[in-house]
Amino acid sequence: MFDLDLVKKVYSELPEKVKQAKGILNKPMTYAEKILYSHLFAAQELAAFKRGADYVDFAPDRVAMQDATAQMALLQFINSGKKRTAVPSTVHCDHLIQAQVEGKTDLSVSKTANKEVFDFLESVSNKYGIGFWKPGAGIIHQVVLENYAFPGGMMIGTDSHTVNAGGLGMVAIGVGGADAVDVMAGMAWELKMPKMIGVKLTGKISGWAAPKDVILKVAGILTVKGGTGAIIEYFGEGAKSLSATGKGTICNMGAEVGATTSIFAYDESMERYLRATGRAEVADLANGVKEHLDADAEVYANPEQYYDELIEINLSELEPHVNGPFTPDRATPISQMKETAEANGWPMEVSVGLIGSCTNSSYEDISRAASIAKQAEEKGLVTQAEFTITPGSEQVRYTIERDGFIDTFEKIGGKVFANACGPCIGQWARPGAEKGEKNTIVHSFNRNFSKRADGNPNTHAFVTSPELVTALAIAGRLDFNPATDTLTNKNGEEVKLDLPTGEELPGKGFDVKDPGFQAPAADGSNVVINVADDSNRLQLLSPFEKWDGQNITGAKLLIKAEGKCTTDHISMAGPWLRFRGHLDNISNNMLIGAVNAFNGETNKVKNQLTGEYDAVPAVQRQYKAEGIPTVVVGDHNYGEGSSREHAAMEPRHLGVKAVIVKSFARIHETNLKKQGMLGLTFANENDYDLVQEDDVFNFVDLVDFAPDKALTVELVHADGSKDAIKLNHTYNAQQIEWFKAGSALNLIKQQNA
Ligand code: SF4
To answer: Where do the Aconitase A/isopropylmalate dehydratase small subunit swivel domain residues begin and end (predicted)?
Structure first.
């Protein structure tokens, strides 16, 4: 399944491409820069691109898609007119599998419930030359790390945690389905040349600290916005001391600080992981171009000169962190949790501890967590909270079962869910969640936005390492610090947990009986793709309308969103995941999680036609029926969270014309552009306050839409008064063509024709 020729091609071209780039840049290069400059699209002229400013066309080596996002991506790809994907691509069935009882039962139920979708993905994959990972094979990012990621490579994936592959030295970036379509169709993939944030790691992790704590600490420093538009490059002796999978965990959660991606340079830990996962040839090839799979020595000697921002962390002093609730950047060292939780009134009792997910289910993670679980049994402790394990892949699951870890977890009451996303993405049928009770859970996943795990807005979810999750689940308390505190066992004795121990890689090697992979047909021309007309899960797409060349006028305010408005708020996951392939049906969740700035409520906005308050999608459907354009207004970092292009397609489908915000999360801003929407920012942030509930928007100079030229919109208030405000945008010439054509896909089709 691994494409060795691809690696050979990349490595054979790497030295010359780096040399050429250096000739132009005339300075030492960071590792990420070497990868970026060696992956320029053929028609892209080599130049010294300005970080944070210049848009550059790239040619990624691979594409990966998960089942929820693949539906829309493939529905779009079918419309591109291509016979096979231009680059190796894979589909992974992981997000649609619900966690309820235990792995086998849940998998079987989910396969039946989602049969139509899995069959669709399987047949499209078969037809267009895409590798298909069946339900139960594992979570996209773990499977990619085990099978496809390679140092020096570049990939995109239709999931924001694609960045996980940075742990194996790859520039891997989460995108929307529309970007995946571009690359699969052989088009350039465009990205603003990222800034570079250097994180120098010194010392060595010890005690209860884990690689997870590096990123939990970084999240506390950078916050959810701090990495926006940047690649985070980790280096230093501390970086070398981490396992490849530990590096993967750190890169994975780079998405939580908004980073474009994160990366570590090639080193011995990566070589060990490549060899352990059956890719010794890749390791040998990588060793042959080692000097190019790292930054230049001058960069490390003077990092402040070559990175736009520099952070230093001494791993020897790193404490275990527990981040949350509701946001992954609220970092609390475990030693301060007691007073912090008390001060904030967070429920102290831990009701469930959940380990695994794409973030933390490596052999090393599981073995360290198992070392804690084992102690519970040996020391006569009764686990106080529920405890679940979500393996990241069948290979990991099979190997940890063989090595007795699953047995160890089951002895403390652990429940093993399917190798899938499950509780990490709201696919957790948690008994009693509907009661909405205030409670605390701790998990080793990456995200903890409100409602994300179980749909209950009062579930306080905290993110930490798997070993600490295990300890907190055993103790049943959020303020338990295993480094200092004792627990009372069945015999009334005070016992202390010893430090976690584990193995980086399985001593007996990885093993798996059926990894769950299906190769595509050599010639897919006769493969038939079925989408039933009456399906409520899948719907073939019709192209969006072209721009009529006129200024948009008379647009009504649909909602002025206040505070955090992530892609979960714009297009909620959980039960809605099942409609990912049906644009009209899923549009019934549009912005239902966004808080209306005028009443502080969710999914309750004023219908300007009736004066009544109603659900956002219902109000928007009425405007659409009447042919009235609308505008959505938002706060800072609008659209943070994920690459879900539904968050852009739904408003587009329902007739919203523009989204005007204080600032955007990168992926969402690009997705809006791809779908032919206007994604604009207030030139003066305070103008957000000028927007009133009954406002009408008139664009004054959209007919002159051009790069680097602000737009003007006139707000007409209910009393007839007006405010003219300036709106900035980041559209380049090509993106303006997308807008004019109605969407990027419309333009691709025109060009293919
Ligand atoms: Fe799945 Fe959660 Fe990982 Fe996303 S973050 S791929 S939902 S396990």
So the answer is: 556-685
